[in-house]
From TrEMBL, chain A:
PROSITE patterns: FAD_FR (PS51384). It comes from Methanoculleus taiwanensis. CDD domains: DHOD_e_trans_like1 (cd06219). This is Dihydroorotate dehydrogenase. Binds 1 [2Fe-2S] cluster per subunit. [2Fe-2S] cluster binds at C219, C222, C234. Residues 1-93 form the FAD-binding FR-type domain. The keyword Repressor does not apply. Signal peptide: none annotated.
Automatic annotation (TrEMBL), chain B:
One of its GO terms (molecular function) is oxidoreductase activity. Residues 23-53 form the 4Fe-4S ferredoxin-type domain. This is Dihydropyrimidine dehydrogenase. It comes from Methanoculleus taiwanensis. Gene3D superfamilies: Alpha-helical ferredoxin, FAD/NAD(P)-binding domain, NAD(P)-binding Rossmann-like Domain.
Length: 283, 447
């Protein structure tokens, strides 16, 4: 059993959990993720390791469907059936000179651990974090503390730059040298934002989020096309050279179970109101 | 001995083969000639005293029979069900030359099931030696090595990356062939011998390779779980699965019971399964149980299929169509799979394995309309951990190189099962594990 040490909602529908998982915490590096299963009926879902403290790891997730909504109902002291990790290859961190980490929405959660390792390696670190509006912006203070410079963008202009992270990234690339870029967020955001670094020839990483099952390279559910080759994101990634990724295929594969996912959410909503058991469904 | 009727069993995941009754078992056991030099034993990779246990069955001493079997094989209810007996023990039984071979597998299953229902007796253990052994992977190889090493008095810990033990027995072979309670009971019996099991540990990640090598001995049994794809256009379309993914979703995650269980799986109406081995048969029969009309596409002839005979027969009974001498060239679809384009194959001269090598017939392309494709053309050794151990020698195909005792290029590291042999069988995996465990025991005792 893996205990949830703390559980809090840090923005609308975005939750921060610290989970006790010593074997994950002991070995976790920037860019890696874990897979958890809530209970015996649960599915395995991947979440990025966002920070480590002692024998606990932090995950930050958006409640989008059945499992993440169910997870959001858990409180400090509750237990998860399974947590496995750290999974995936660590980020390739060196002293590049100037590095920029860009996050969109819940994807911002993946940045602190990468930014911290980049900083420790001696880089000048620029952060760009963007959300739809000021209320959905997460981890601003933490990112401000780690990064040498931090830019904020909102789609509606309610805070920081009025527009997209891609706009700020372009602006910065126009007037200075940036040696490496990481972009993490929804697939469409990564596609659009990484296009911005192409003309500048800057090596850019994205963290891909295809549908996974085992997370250990045994099923191929997570296969993505990178540079014309099929890769398994859970073991060959999840970070890949953004300019080689077939984002259209990724987005198509993310939609495989849309109908079932919709049914599962509806069933979950019905279940939670009727039995009031906080989402723990039986049979 | 009876199979449930095909039209009934395709509607559930309950066991197909109901096994022998007491009377049937005794009658079958009485047929055994009790050979002085039993050929059958040499055909069993774990050397079960076959005439010995069969003699006890003939006498109605089922508990004694079970003890004799478990002397050499701690997973008899599993092996009795899934061993390719026709090419192992039964294939060499002397009676097979004239009449029909003794049904050794079915008898083994009978005594194992009898013992499960009448109270299991744990085998004896040697005095603790104080030596620590790490076993990586909880498939048949890992479980077998752990049982042997625990019996010899060593402190054994098994590391398993998934949330359930059993390897392919749990995530691959479907319940209608191998009920999961049977697997769990046999594994639990090994754990009750004092073997530690750490689930959710991906060795190489959750435990570093360096920390693994600190054990007094290491047994690598990580299997051959990396699914191969064909490399044809359209393979990444939604609706195309590896057999491993499809079977894992259903067997391990219980997607057949979605939404009670959270993991989804597509229920195709017309499914093509590519391959001719056990894995292909299992995938086809699972898809059938999820309501599909299934076509199995295989590039050679039916007689060349590597699957167990019983499973080919069962698959046919269940209405799986066989398109043999056929090879896929392209998977068609826009948002989702809509078809698979194939070409007919002609059989030409024999290849290295003695089988006719198939050649494409020009202009024979045709398209099957399907909404789902499952690729079951094979798997290769799991590269993750073995690539992280410095100095561990591997073949070009990725198998760990071992000597006849399972010893690798690193002195206290042994390997067995599919990671060493490439995808093989449960009983071969167990045979290699037993040899390695014996060698590890010798090494630890000499130290
Ligand atoms: C390596 C990796 C790291 C991730 N890190 C984070 C993170 O830190 N924070 C976060 O909020 N989300 C993260 N995700 C996405 C997260 O796993 C999904 O949002 C979650 O699985 C949705 O489950 P659900 O049942 O709530 O929603 P559903 O309604 O079932 O699915 C919503 C969408 O999520 C995706 N999804 C569904 N099941 C899976 C699955 N088994 N694996 C991957 N994606 C799936 C699909 O595209 C689907 O359309 C990550 C995904 C990957 C692959
Ligand atoms: C669908 C299917 C049907 C089959 N049917 C038959 C049959 O009828 N008869 C027969 O004899 N054979 C059959 N086989 C083949 C047989 O199952 C295998 O040969 C056998 O399971 C190999 O055993 P193993 O212990 O070497 O590996 P596996 O059973 O593959 O077990 C390996 C285990 O190691 C774990 N692992 C891998 N890497 C790590 C790591 N780094 N850290 C921790 N754990 C790790 C895996 O999760 C897995 O649980 C079938 C195979 C499949 C896929
Ligand atoms: S374990 Fe397999 S090969 Fe050995 S006797 Fe039993 S069925 Fe035959
Ligand atoms: S070879 Fe056949 S007949 Fe002879 S002992 Fe073995 S099972 Fe009995
Ligand atoms: S999730 Fe199964 S191979 Fe990547
Ligand atoms: Mg879900």
């Amino acid at each position: 059993m893996y205990t949830v040490n703390t559980a809090s909602e840090i923005a609308e529908r975005i939750y921060e959990f610290w989970i006790r998982a010593p074997q994950v915490a002991r070995n976790a590096r920037a860019g890696q993720f874990l897979i958890l299963r809530i209970d015996e009926q649960g599915e395995r879902i991947p979440l990025t390791i966002s920070a480590v403290n002692g024998d606990a790891v932090r995950v930050v997730f958006m409640a989008v469907g059945k499992t993440t909504q169910h997870l959001a109902t858990l409180k400090a002291g509750d237990a998860l059936a399974d947590v496995v990790g750290p999974l995936g290859k660590p980020s390739e961190i060196e002293n590049f000179g100037t590095a920029c980490v860009v996050g969109g929405g819940a994807g911002i959660a993946c940045l602190p651990i990468i930014a911290r390792e980049l900083k420790e390696a001696g880089n000048h670190v620029i952060g760009i974090i963007g959300a739809r509006n000021a209320g959905l912006l997460i981890l601003e203070d933490e990112m401000r503390e780690i990064c040498d410079e931090l830019f904020i963008t909102t789609d509606d202009g309610s805070k920081g730059f009025h527009g997209y992270a891609a706009d700020v990234l372009k602006r910065e690339l126009d007037h200075r040298t940036i040696d490496r870029v990481w972009i993490i967020g929804p697939a469409i955001m990564m596609k659009v934002t990484s296009a911005a670094t192409v003309p500048y020839g800057v090596k850019t990483f994205v963290s891909l989020n295809p549908i996974m099952v085992d997370g250990t390279g045994m099923c191929g559910s997570c296969r993505v096309t990178v540079g014309g080759e099929t890769k398994f994101a859970c073991v060959d990634g999840p970070e890949f050279d953004a300019h080689q990724v077939d984002f259209v295929e990724l987005m198509q594969r993310q939609r495989i179970y849309t109908d079932q996912e919709k049914a599962a959410v509806e069933r979950f909503a019905e279940h939670t109101c009727r039995c009031g058991e906080g989402g723990h469904h039986h049979g | 001995m009876a199979d449930r009727a095909a039209d009934v069993r395709v509607r559930d995941f309950k066991e197909v083969d109901l096994g022998m009754t007491v009377d049937e078992a005794i009658a079958e056991a009485e047929r055994c000639l009790q050979c002085k030099k039993p050929l059958c034993v040499a055909g069993c990779p774990v050397c079960i005293d076959i005439p010995g246990f069969i003699a006890e069955v003939a006498e109605g001493n089922f508990r004694k029979a079970a003890a004799i079997v478990k002397e050499q094989n701690m997973l008899p209810a599993i092996c009795g069900r899934v061993c390719p007996q026709e090419t192992q023990c039964e294939g060499v039984c002397i009676l097979g030359k004239k009449e029909t071979a003794i049904r050794i597998g079915a008898l083994e299953r009978f005594v194992a099931d009898w013992e499960q229902q009448n109270g299991l007796v744990s085998p004896e253990k040697a005095e603790p030696t104080g030596k620590r052994v790490a076993v990586v992977g909880s498939g048949p190889a890992g479980i077998t090595a752990a049982a042997e090493l625990a019996r010899a008095g060593h402190a054994v810990t098994i590391f398993e990356s998934l949330h359930e033990a059993g390897g392919v027995l749990t995530y691959g072979i479907p319940a209608f062939r191998l009920p999961k309670e049977i697997v769990k009971t046999e594994i639990d019996q090994v754990l009750e011998m004092g073997v530690g099991l750490k689930k959710n540990y991906l060795v190489g990640r959750s435990l570093s390779a360096a920390d693994l090598l600190k054990y007094d001995a290491v047994f690598l049994a990580t299997g051959a779980g990396l699914p191969s794809f064909m490399g044809i256009p359209g393979e990444n379309l939604p609706g195309v699965y590896s057999a491993n993914e499809f079977l894992t979703r259903v067997n391990l995650m219980h997607a057949d019971r979605f939404p009670v269980f959270d993991t989804p799986v597509k229920h195709g109406a017309r499914v093509a399964v590519v391959g001719g081995g056990n894995v292909a048969m299992d995938a086809a029969r699972v898809a059938r149980r999820l309501g599909a009309k299934v076509t199995l596409i295989y590039r050679r002839r039916e007689e060349d299929m590597p699957a167990r005979l019983a499973e080919v027969h069962h698959a046919k009974e269940e209405g799986i169509e066989f398109a043999t001498c056929t090879n896929p060239t392209r998977i068609i679809g826009d948002q989702f799979v809509t078809g698979i384009e194939c070409v007919k194959m002609t059989m030409c001269k024999l290849d290295a394995s003695g089988r006719p090598s198939p050649q494409e017939e020009k202009g024979s392309e045709f398209t099957l309309d399907v909404d789902m494709v499952i690729i079951a053309i094979g798997t290769s050794p799991n590269p993750l951990l073995v690539s992280l151990i410095p100095g561990l020698e591997r073949t070009r195909k990725g198998n760990v190189v071992v000597d006849e005792n399972g010893k690798t290029s690193i002195p206290h590291v042994y390997a067995g099962g599919d990671i060493a042999t490439g995808a093989a069988t449960v009983i071969e995996a167990m045979g290699t594990a037993k040899k390695a465990a014996a060698a590890i025991n010798r090494m630890l005792r000499e130290e």
